[in-house]
Structure formats: C-alpha cells, structure tokens
Amino acid sequence: MDLQDKTVLVTGSTRGIGLAIAKAFYSRGCNIVLNSRHAIPEELLKQFPDNNRVFSAIGDVADEKEAQYIVEQTIEHFHQIDVLVNNAGINRDMLANRMSSEDFQAPIKTNLIGSFNVTQPALKTMYHQKRGSIINISSVVALIGNIGQLNYAASKAGLIGLTKTLAREAARRHVRCNAIAPGMISTDMVS
Questions:
Q1: Average pLDDT over residues 148-157
Q2: What is the DSSP code (8-state) at residue 37?
Q3: 26 is catalytic
C-alpha cells in the first residue's frame, strides 16, 4: 500500500502506542500530525527529522471545540486528512464499589466521546475527498473485561460499537473504519 504523502492525524501521540503509530506512518512517507493536550517537547519533535512532514496540534479531544480545532489545524496545514487514528486514552482503574461517578465518566469522555469529537469533523473532510480511513484504538478489555477497569472497559467497548456502525455508514462514501484491540503493552499508562 502506497502511503507516500498521505496525512495522518494520531491523537494522543506523544508517547506509548500513539507515538509508535506516528513513527510507523512517518517511516512510510506520511505527513504526521502529533496531538497532545500539552505542548509537545522539542526532543520528541527531533525524532521526526523532516520538519515539513510533521505538525503539532495541541488540544484535548474530550473538549468538542478543541477536537474540532485539532482537525481544522490539520487540514489548514496539510490541506487534507487521509487517516485518523483515535488513540488518545486515559484510565482511572479502581474497583466498581469505590468508583465515583466522575471516575466512571472520565475515561468515557476521553476514550469514547473524544473519539467521536475528532471523528465527526474529520469525516466531513473525508466524505468530501471521497476517501479516508479511521482507526480506533480499543482494547482487549472491551471484549473480555478486567477487574478494576469497569470504566475503561465500558469506554473501549463503546468504541467498538461506534466503529462497527461507522464502518457501515462511511463505506458508502469510500471511508473505512476499523478498530484495533491490543492487549497489555508496556507503556506509561500501563505502568
């Protein structure tokens, strides 16, 4: 598959799985949009030597306006968006009987609603382009559950449902939507 000059937005891409995904697409010749809620350190940007192919879009996907701005910045800078990887995610692990409503909602706001917040404006551009791919990073926990991860599992299971429905809707406009459900991977979030 020729990915040369495709534009890829990876949410939550300054560490862990997101950074690895961004590097993989970059190595295939893609333009990369890195995203974080905070300023992206210069040391990290140096890992992508061709400055013309890398752009930083700062914003919190859980905030609808910031998510829309992330997509707007991507299109303004690279004039297209070919691939969206909804990777931004948080966890608040604890047993269900100790979990507050806020603890339950936080992963859902970022992992599920945040993915929708970025997908919707990106989808409009992809429909106009008549092409695109959306990749949602779910989790094996969505499929099998895990003690202490009621909120995280619910958010990632919701993302699978979102993916299946969007795949059916978007296919009519030549846009693919898939989910990946990794198991435990040694990242900062896991540790």
A1: 98
A2: S
A3: no
CA distances from 119 to 47, 51, 83, 127, 140 (A): 27, 26, 10, 12, 22
- What single letter denotes the amino acid at residue 27? S
Which positions ≥6 away from 67 have C-beta within 8 Å?
Answer: 59, 60, 61, 114, 117, 118, 121
Terminal CA-to-CA distance of the chain, rounded, Å? Answer: 35
* pLDDT at residue 51, as a whole number: 87
pLDDT in the model for residue 118: 98
Average pLDDT over residues 88-109: 97
pTM, 2 dp: 0.94
Domain of 126 in residue numbering reads as 7-180
CB distance 102 to 27 below 8 Å: no
What's 66's domain CATH number?
Answer: 3.40.50.720
